Structure formats: structure tokens, C-alpha cells
Amino acid sequence: MKKNTLYRLYSGAFIGLCLVPTVLMPFVKGGESKENRALSELPKLKTAEGDFNINYLSDLGDYFSEHFAFRQQLVTADGRIKTALTATSPNTDVIDGTDGWLYYAPTADDYLNINTLSPRQVSGICRDLRLVNDCCEQNGKRFLFFSAPNKSSICPEHMPYNYVPADAPDNYELIMAGLAGESFCLDMRAALADTGSSIPLYHATDTHWNNLGAYAGHSAIMSALDREACPADNWTVEPNGRLGDLAAMIYPSEDAKDTQVNSDYSFTYEYQGRFKALDDITIDTLCEGGEGSLLMYRDSFGEALLPYMAEMFASAEFSRITPYRFDEAILERFDTVIVELAERNLPRLAQTAPLMPAPEVGEGTAFFTPSKYVGEFSKKENCPVIDWSQIPVYIGQNGAYTLLTGALPESFFSGDDAGVYLTVNGTTYEAFRASEYSDCGNGFTAYIPADTEFDSIEVFTQCGDGHAVSVEVPADKLIRKEQ
User: Is 2 helix (H, G, I), strand (E, B) or coil?
Assistant: First the structure.
């Protein structure tokens, strides 16, 4: 009887503890989330159209899992226990390193040198960046591209011992090798490695570089532009200067603060328009002491860079808009254009083409004679029957442009160095190699004038070894791309 009583008491206490977060949920808030996402809202039985919400129970489960009482404290306790006892993170997006350092899990492939871009994708990315540089030069603008390195690329010493990189180049190295010698490409890894700083350039519990790392990046950028950097100096370390985004994911109730490195420099630039926060889609600045005008496409790494860049340009626009725009209406407003892209996001360059007019190919350009003609272009009898599903070409409208994009079969390519060209009404355009319709580097994207009328387009490849294939696509075979 005594043993049964103990079992009942134990079971009752256990069930009671489990019920506490639910029972107290109306009275105790789960705490404001510090995660970089919006928590789910309390679902409704009916949808906005008045129909019954068939996902109500699953939505309610999601709501409860993100709002139960003492959620932040329980998540933090789970995080502390797992990192202390098993050296693992309870959050799949966070890697628990040594000495309290945390790393962003989606950067693991880059660190391990696995799942890298294909040689054809790398070649296409490099070709596309050269086209952007050519466009900027033709419009009298200075262009600069660089990739902000992952934390594990600059501070690998705290990565877990069981993360062993493969003996192969990563995406960053592959693209830098493909752009070797190009004046518009800045190797930010090398620039950060040359600082010789005894202070880490990245936060221990955050994804990004600290202010000192950002300043080192700024100095490298200005050097590449043949300009002086912002004269910031007298750096001091502030122990609790910044909330680490990675720490917030696994220790949300602790308000864990990471160190920050600050300079005593007093900035003079001013924000223009409606500025809310450094993660705004577009931020405009003015600085009386600055020179020139800047357009900088950036991601979250650009937030710490912004003050130093804004200080050195009379006017600047910092944009998170994609695709990047390089059309005449944009370029006429700036004399310097910079693209900053985090290392972990480099594969996006193979999927999203810049928004700019496709460059026309001059009449004097020498093309290889296509070794294979497909379909109507051959103008011969007994042409092969084309399976147009194997050569999807999409058409859409984007402001002043007609968008032509798609993917070509492997038979159109030989090797990795290949250009894709479109001939419309006698005018030949070079297409970007990036395309959302290809994950192997066989895609193309081109923006041509919106008022162009045509009955067909010729799509052809020209490979470095002389291999060339062409196909004429009738207008009625183009697939309408939904906006």
C-alpha cells in the first residue's frame, strides 16, 4: 500500500508539473521571442473566406508550442543542460562550439567543403559578375563585389572537433579563383586575415562580425576603391554590448549579451526618409563631409558596415532589394555600386539574375558555327520533332523589360565554360547564366525591351571548346511566367 501511494504521488506530481505550462498559459506569458522569426498567432475556427479552418488543430498545436507559460525559461534550461553535458545544441540552426562560441548551422557545408556549387555554376556566376561590371563601366560607374566570410571561415578554432573539412575548395574559394585578377572583386577573407588583430573580428554568440571586423572590411573596401577609410580608432571592448542572435535561439530567457568592440569616433552622417532600424529594406544617408554617391546592395552583414560607409559618401543608399538592379534609371543616381553577399548565400548568385538590360552582342563578334541545329532553325527538311518540355523557355513582364528565362538540356553544353545567347528580330543578346529554373548551371535569364515583338527567338550556346547548339523557339511555345 505504501509503495502504491508513492507511485500515485509521483505520478500526480509529474502530471501536475506537465500541466503547469498549460494551466498558467492565460496568466503567464511565454515571453517575447528573441528568435529571428514571427511566432504563430492564435488560430481561428473559420478562415477569412468564412470556411471552416481544416488546419485548426495543427495550428493550435503550433500556437501552444510557441506560447506556453515559462517557455523562454524552459527552452533556456534545455539549452544550458545540453550544451554543458553533451556539447550539442538543442536548436538545429545552432552549432555549439568550444569556449562558449556558437556557429550558424547553415554554414556547416561551407566549413566542411561539401555540397559545393558545380564547376558550371561557378563559371556562370563569374560570367554574370563580369557582365555587371561591364555594364557599370559602360555607364561610367565603379563596381565592386565581395562576399562577407562566414564566422567559421575567419574564426575556425572554436568549431567542434568532429567537424573535419574535406580536402577540397569551398564555394568562396571556387568563385575567388574564377575571378582571380578581376579588379572589381575583393577577397574579403584575405583582407580580414591580414589585420593582425588580437581581438576577434566576429562575435562569439552571434552570426556576424563585430564592429572591429566590419571596420576591417570597410578599410579593405575603401582601399579597393582607391579611397581613404573612415578614421575610426581607439577601440575598446564592451563586455555586454550586443545580444547574440545565436545565443537568443538557445538561451532566450537569459538576455545573454555578447561583447562588442567600439571606437570613440563620432559619426556625422544623417538618415534620410523614414528610418526604423538597420534591417530596413532601404536606408538612405547624407554626410556633408563625404564624397561621391554610393549604392550598396547588402544583407545582414551590411548593418555593421553601414555607419563607416555612410560617413565617407556624400549620399548613399543601402538596399536589401533582390534581384539587384543595374538598369540605367538606377545607375544614373550613383557613381559607385557595391554588392555585398554573405558567404553562405553565394549559391543564390546561380539562381537569381540581376535586373538589367541584356547586353547586345556587336556585329563584329566572332561566334563558333553551331555544330548542331535543333528544330526549325536548321531550315532543312526532316527536322527532328522537338519535345518542348525538355527546352522550357519562360516569358514574363517586369516593368520596362520582357523577361526570357529557362533551362537548356545537357546536350547544349560541353565543358563548364559556356555562354548563352538569344537572337530576337536580328539582335543578339548575351543572357545571364543564373536562372531559378536550373540547379545545375544550365539556365539562362535575359531582360530585353518590353516593346519587342517577335514570332520566335533563337536560343544558342557557345562553349569554350567550340561546341555550339541552337534552337528556334516559336512564340507560341513560350511558357507564360506568373508574376
Answer: helix
Residue 80 region by backbone torsions, left for phi larger than 0, else alpha for psi between -120 and 50, else beta? alpha
Euclidean distance between the first and the last CA atom of the chain, given in angstroms as a whole number: 72
User: Among 109, 111, 147, 150, which Cα is nearest to 129's?
Assistant: 147
Closest CA to 352 of 144, 125, 136: 125
SS3 of residue 60 by DSSP: helix
Write down all domains in the chain, each with its CATH number in brackets: 1-69 (no CATH), 104-350 (no CATH), 372-480 (2.60.40.10)
Point out the least confidently predicted range of 41-45, 235-239, 375-379, 439-443.
375-379
Q: What are the CB-based long-range contacts (under 8 Å, 24+) for 65-69?
A: 66/30, 66/33, 66/39, 66/40, 67/25, 67/29, 67/30, 67/39, 68/21, 68/22, 68/25, 68/30, 69/20, 69/21, 69/22, 69/23, 69/24, 69/25, 69/27, 69/28, 69/29, 69/30
> Residue 228 has what DSSP assignment?
P
The pLDDT of residue 378 is above 90:
no
